[in-house]
Amino acid sequence: MKKNLAMVLAAIMLLCVAIPAFAGNEEKPVIWFNRQPSNSTTGELDMDALTFNDKTYYVGFDAKQGAELQGKMIVDYLLAHGEGLDRNGDGIIGYVLCIGDVGHNDSIARTRGARKALGTAIPDALQGKTEIATIDDVDSQPIGTNPDGSADHVKDGSIEIDGKTYIVRELASQEMKNSSGATWDAPTAGNAIIAWEGSFGDQIDVVVSNNDGMGMAVFNAWAKEKGVPTFGYDANSDAVAAIADGYCGTISQNADVQAYLTLRTLRNTLDGADIMVGISTPDAAGNVLSDDLYYYDEATRCFYALNGAVTADNYEAFLDATAANPAFSNQLSEADGAIKKVWLSIYNSADNFLNATYVPQLKNYAAALNLDVEYVLGDGQTEANLIDRLGNPSEYDGFAINMVKTDNAASYMVKLMQ
Fold it and tell me: Quick one: average pLDDT of 75-100?
């Protein structure tokens, strides 16, 4: 009997050794944020990632609504400031476009939104499109340079300003990727505008950027001195402040709402609460979002913050992009939400929006929601730089993941299922 008992105990010990220390991590909450799991070529959502388990969600913003808003903001400015826009008097409003990442859904949408609004869009032949019904149908590829309007991925548009019709031409566009492979790269944009000036000089009448990091690099390196209207996206504090000095506009994607939703969905899934607690219905501390700030797509398990235009008319209300919103930053008691440990990745330590705006907002709401967050900053180039630092997932109660590339969700899922 003793011998049999010893054998059973030995077998149990061997079994325990064979089970990985982090078994069960595939059942923990996973919140994808900022970079939506999707095919970087087609934009098709990665539903395997979005339904990894019943505690998985995505938090971002409405990229299409924001892209269309940026396009409208640019056109409204042109219509209101017609006199003097055509710097060399050639009858052409020439613009250059700073593209963030050709494989990122948000960057693709912003490129499409600007082109559609300015009339330079053509249908995306790679998708088999022959006409444009929505911005989804617009070709978003960079063109390099386009001095004569003959580029393959755009056409010349037109706009009537003060009774005069101008040609609108995309003179140049490129993905702002540095030599190490990091995208949305501000220094690359700053260098690009100098090269573009060498090619086009005073043919450049407008600068459009997929984000404020690149937009501000162009503004500071060239556009501010030349008085060339520059438009970005993200409402970073430095860009909003620069509106007083001539930066013409940006789009707020409500980073406070996104950061709150990222951690609120984690809090709810960790607690086994209804996912809409503290979102559409107040939590125990009274935190709640008004329904004009976000919407939820239940079919894809995605939360989207809505965007707002920031211009000379209203920029002062957006000067502090890191301020917590009092409507949803009330302190949750530990009785209502015990402290939980979260692993959270940021794809690039050099990304201005994420590190200067989003992370400070995350810290605001992490404190209020009793979440002990470990922030892991990547190099913007390789997924392994983040995944390899998730050494033992069993140390954490949940995960918030901002990938380098939108295609790479499976790499994190494999890590959690090992």
Answer: 95
